[in-house]
Amino acid sequence: MNKLKKEEKVQAVSELQDKFRKAKGIVFTDYRGLNVEEITGLRTSLRSAALEFKVVKNTLAKRAAAGTPVEAAKDSFSGPVGIAIGYDDPVLLVKKVLEYNKTNEKLQIKGGIIEGGVCSLDALKTISELPPREVLLSMLAGTLQAPMSKLARLLNATLAQFVYAMEALKNKKS
Q1: Domain check: are 74 and 106 in the same one?
Q2: How confident is the model at residue 25, as a pLDDT?
Q3: Is residue 29 part of a domain?
Q4: Same domain? 87 vs 165
Q5: pTM across the whole model
Q6: pLDDT in tens, 79-113
Q7: pLDDT > 60? residue 1
Q8: Beta pairing partners, 109
Q9: In 3D, which of 114, 108, 9 has the Cα closest to residue 64?
């Protein structure tokens, strides 16, 4: 691997640290056994969903992790490590990486960080089973709307019964 100059290392650490701070989801992988074509396929798959995959030196990644949520997962930086990063939807990131892992088992998933919390492989698999964010939000909206619509029907029924009672009373008196 090419030797990086000190200025290049400082810049690489700074850029990676910025990515770590902005990321909502990060998945650590071991890419041993993958050839360049397979890694390019993974990058293309992730890029199509506005995600990215980086291969970085462990020493630089450990330095970049300082002061970020990734610091809690420093132990993941051993051996060849590829980092998948997502900035918007962490569930989509996990789904895409696990989807690629199903087609190419050479990519081993070590763990990850979702919304600042360290996750094991099992936790990542559980997260990948969640529906997309939009579906969850619509489910929440439906749940919040149900009690209000029931209240509206109840109030309407009570008002209707009162009107019927007044109408019956009027008819009885006339």
Answers
A1: yes
A2: 92
A3: yes
A4: no
A5: 0.71
A6: 888 999 999 888 889 999 999 989 888 888 998 99
A7: no
A8: 29
A9: 9
